[in-house]
Amino acid sequence: xxxxxxxxxxxxxxxxxxxxxxxxxxxxxxxxxxxxxxxxxxxxxxxxxxxxxxxxxxxxxxxxxxxxxxxxxxxxxxxxxxxxxxxxxxxxxxxxxxxxxxxxxxxxxxxxxxxxxxxxxxxxxxxxxxxxxxxxxxxxxxxxxxxxxxxxxxxxxxxxxxxxxxxxxxxxxxxxxxxxxxxxxx
Length: 186
Known about the structure:
Blueprint: H1 10-25, H2 29-45, H3 47-54, H4 60-73, H5 78-89, H6 96-110, E1 113-120, H7 126-140, E2 143-150, E3 158-162, E4 165-168, H8 171-182
Parallel strand pairs: 1-2
Antiparallel strand pairs: 1-3, 3-4
């Protein structure tokens, strides 16, 4: 999937907060988090699924049936299944990616974790990801989860966003800075 925005609508935050409270009361947070992670992976991998949830032409009833079939196929738990049914019946499936992101952020905050958005030219290996997470933990003092994405246009290096901080060590940016300095602008 193309670049995922880190902005989340107020609607998505409210739905995610309601789901978090419901999952917390049912002591079902980890299974719901796994279900949402599975759904996010499905959304990332399927253009058809993204079109389906975003389509204003599909009726609420058809959205509800489709998302129920998807939940069955993906072995989604009862709490998440009920939530998805509610979201579909209210015509809010288009905001599902934002709801998933807002839930993950709320869960990370409750656990004292931070999430670093890492964009690299090539996929990070497990070793590289673990080393980066360990180094970021040293810097911020909290556990850091890595949300990795590949963008070949960077040519090399990576861009790391952690909260309001950003470190851009990509080859593309270095070449741009060099070009500007050679022109006498930088």
